[in-house]
Write a structure and sequence with these properties.
mainly alpha; 3-stranded antiparallel beta sheet; elongated; 4 helices; 96 residues
Length: 96
């Protein structure tokens, strides 16, 4: 396992000034995944963007875990639709 790609939960919580129980709650709810390795818990660095969104929604807008899950799902659907529209516009451009 490449530990250079992992961030220790305690360090992450200290850096972002959040409580560890928030990360535990988010994992239990399925909004993020942690990795257990050598009796320590880690977050993979490719999850940082998503976790930062979750923290902003939770702290700045006071949105609960259920609301965050809905928002993230809707954002993913919007991104998929935007990709599909771009693809269709590109295909349409071939016929113009």
């Amino acid at each position: 396992m490449d530990t250079q790609e992992l961030i220790i939960i305690e360090v992450f919580c200290q850096e972002y000034q959040i409580e560890k129980h928030l990360v535990d709650d988010l994992e239990a709810f399925g909004l993020l995944q942690t990795i257990q390795h050598n009796q320590a818990t880690y977050i993979h660095k490719n999850q940082l963007v998503n976790i930062e969104k979750i923290i902003r929604l939770h702290n700045d807008l006071n949105i609960n875990k259920e609301g965050i899950a809905v928002i993230l799902d809707l954002l993913e659907k919007v991104n998929q639709l935007q990709t599909e529209v771009k693809h269709l516009n590109d295909r349409l451009g071939l016929y113009e």
